Structures are given as C-alpha cells and as structure tokens.
Amino acid sequence: MVEKITLKILRSIPSKGVKPTVEKYSVPVFKGMTVLDSLLYVKGHLDHSVSFRYSCRMGNCGSCSMVVNGSPRLTCQTQISELGTKEVEVRPLENFPVIRDLVSDYDEFYDKHREVKPYLIRRDKTEEEHPTSEYLQSREELDKYIQFALCIKCGQCFHACPITSTDIRYLGPQALSQAYRYLTDSRDQDNHERIEAVNTRNGCWGCHLAESCSEACPKGVDPSLGIQLLRRMVLGSGHKKRQKG
Amino acid sequence: MLHYATGVLIVVFGAVHLATHSFLGVEGYAGSLQYLSVIGRYRTALFAFTLEALLVTIAYHGLNGTRMILLEFRQGERWNMAVNWLLVAVGILVVAYGTRTVLGAYLWG
Amino acid sequence: MSKRKRGSTEPEMRSARKGVRRWLYYHPQGLGRTAFLFHRVTGLGLTAYFVVHVLSVGTILSGEDAWEMFLEIVETPVGWYGELLLLAAIGFHFANGVRLILGEFGLTLDKPTRPDYPFKTGSFNLAQKSLLVLAFVVAALFVLLGYLFIFLEL
Ligand code: SF4
Ligand code: FES
Questions:
Q1: What angle do CA B56, B62, B66 make, to 5 degrees?
Q2: A74 close to ligand 2 (CB < 6 Angstrom)
Q3: Considering only CA atoms, which residue is closest to atom 3 of ligand 1?
Q4: CATH of residue B35
Q5: All structural domains of chain A
Q6: Which atom of ligand 2 has the smallest separation from the CA of A54?
Q7: What is the pLDDT of residues C104-148, one digit of tens each?
C-alpha cells in the first residue's frame, strides 16, 4: 500500500471575495517527495484550480515560498518525510497581500527592494549605462558581501519580521541587507544616495534585532547581520557623501 | 542615538539611585522609607541631582520607546504628529511635576 | 483584461498585516524574538511605572501624614511582590539593553562569510546568545537581591 498524507491548503480569492477556507486533499507520497511535488500532484490529479507559484524547483528562484506547517519554507526544498507529520498544512506567506490561494503579491516587497538602489552606482553616469570594461575584484573584496548576494528574494524574511507585520513603511530585512550588499561592493561608487535611502526611521533604524529574519532565511543570508553592519556604516559615514575606490 | 545614550545614562544614574536608597539610610528597608529618612536623603545634593537626572533621562528614554512602538502601529503624517505631540506633552508634565518634588524637598523639605 | 497595476496600495498592504498578534504568536518563536517581546513589554511597563512613581512620590511635599498614607498603600505584601516584579523587569531590560546596544552597532557579531549548510546565524552567535541568557540571569539576580533586602531586611 502506498503511504498517504493529508494536504491542507488554505485557499482564497480576495479580489472575488472568496473567503479563506482550508481544503483537504489526500496525496500518495513517494520517496523524496517535496511539498511542491505534492501540490503539483493535487493540481494534476485532484483539483486543477489550486494556484501556487514556482519556477526553478531547485531552491534558486524563491518563488515557491509558502508557510508549511507554520514555518516559512521553500516548498521545493522541503521533503515531506523531513516534516514527519501525516498532515501537511500549506498557507501563503504572511505580510503579503494574497492574490489567489498560495500566490502572494510581491509588488510592495520588490518596490522596497528597488528603493535601496540595488545596482552598481558609478560616478560616471555614461559609464554606468554603458560599461567600457569589466570591473575587477579580488577574492577578499568579494568575500565582504557574497553572503548577502546569495539572496533570492524569496520574501521569507519579510514574512518573519515582527516590525514589518505592523509597520507598512518599514523597508524590511531583505531590502536593507541588499543595501549593505551594494554599499560594501568595491565596484560601487558615490553611494550617498543609497545611504540617504536607508538612513531613516523606516530604514535601518527601524530594526529592533528580533533575529526572526535570519532564522527564516533559507539561503543563509543572515539579513539581520547585514542591517546591523549597515547601521555602523551609515553612522560612520556621518551621512555625508562618501567616496570609494 | 539619544535613545542609546540615555539608556546608558539611566544605568549609571539608576545604580546611584538604588545605592543611595539602600545605603544612605542605614535603617534597612522599612527604615529607609520613613518620612524623615526620605526627606533627609532629598536634602543631599548627590541624591537630588541623581533624581533630577534620572527624571529627565527616563522620561526621554521611556517615552521615546513608547513613541517608536506607537509609530509602528499606524502610518501617516497625522498619526505621527498626534503621537509626537501627545508624548512631548506627557513628558513635559511628568518632568515638571517631578522637578517640583525634587526642588521642593531639596530647598524647603 | 484589466491592466495589471503596479505596486500594492496602502489598504492592501494594511490588510495583509496581522499586527501585534504576530509579536505574541509566531512560529518558530526563536529566542531572539522572545527577547524582543520581553524588551518591549518590560519597557512599556517600566515607563508606566515611572509615570505613576513620579506622581505618587510627589505626596512627600504635602507633609508627613500624606506620606504615611501613601506608604500604607504601597507597603503591603502586594506592593512588595510588585516591587520584585519591577526589579525583574529592570534587570532584564537593563541587561538585554546592553546586548542590543552592542549588537545594533555590529559589535560582538560575526563577520559575513560564505554560508554553508547548515547555516549559522552570525548575527545571533554565541556571544549574543550568552548575553541574552545573561539578561535572564541578571533579572533573577535582581529579584534575589530585592528579596533579601525587602523581606529579610539585610
Ligand atoms: S534575505 Fe533570505 S529570506 Fe530574505 S528574501 Fe533573501 S533569500 Fe529570502
Ligand atoms: S521553485 Fe525556485 S526556489 Fe523553489
């Protein structure tokens, strides 16, 4: 006999006024089956109207973030066997508006990411648009920010943050750690614009070190570390225009 | 930044406050609360100064902390202004009342 | 087909937020988040106590009788245990505050690394964790000292 689990999915369509309800599906499990696989099984065999988002299926894109049994997870990286329960409950991420079922709206999250100017800023604006050569970097310089560059914008830190859950203006762990990632990049110049963007109550000073983001992050980014280092950097900059090599 | 600074200051003044409370009145806990003993302490310049300093720093630190929490609840200019002015008013009232006690007891107690 | 809008509107964002409920209940409720909650609750409590304390101690200006009446209200078993609770809050808020000041300026934290599975959180490393545990110890110590002082009159 094949082993079966009950998959509980929290479904809703806010734009059509369909209130959140839990629906149960019985799904056979195979060895190495992930939560995403079980969702795909439901979509393929039981109910094709269940909506969720995924693309890479290898923990590289972050689009399959959901709340599994109460904790934020990349569903494609979470095996059902490791959960060890007969009932698996899947909900959409919190702090995001829901579009439908397990699909949440990342617009706000990406806007906040954009707000910290997540790209290399060069002093020479023509150069910024049309780079003339590669910008070389030593391994040590790379090591300074590589941890934060691993962020896949999955939104789990945003889900976890207790400040985000009350304050809609707070930039959130992801955007702030990305600000730090670009500020420490040796190829980035003239970064006072970015410092200005985060040097506010809703920016790096809004964090109160609850450590939930770093616990949640599936890529080991440790956004909280980035924010604390960012503060030190902002403070050290004296909020003045900074020049970098 | 002032929030961190006052936090540290409170630790210093608070320690002095507790210490003077416990050791200046040598009569033990119950004795230390007797009217004369308390008034006597208020007369010491060190105690009075610490009290006043504590008053101002705690008022700032506590109300600013409250402000941070309140501002996270709702966003918008009107809410910000309301919270800020309300807490400034409370702060001024508390500090004024406390100063009256400290000065009153120190000078005429 | 309606055109896809850009950016969430404020009511949408607001409706997605569960607010203070998520300070109290969150899974997995880590140690750092518990400390965050405790720090806020003790902070608010201490501020409230501070205001009441300043206002009530003012009775000393109205002479000895008023002060005695005030003492009669406060110097009861309930008042004493309240004082112990107060000491616990002060102890925790003080020690945890020291940890937060250090951490929030990037001191005591690890350097960024190339993360390897299983991930370590460099922002909540051994130093920070021990400081947090220390905060609870300090709170307990304050209560103990207060107990010795108030109840045993040492
Ligand atoms: S920092 Fe981590 S949790 Fe946050 S969006 Fe990036 S990968 Fe996801
Ligand atoms: S589908 Fe890309 S991370 Fe899971």
A1: 140
A2: yes
A3: A217
A4: 1.20.1300
A5: 4-104 (3.10.20.30), 107-237 (1.10.1060.10)
A6: 1
A7: 887 878 788 788 777 877 778 888 888 888 888 988 888 888 888
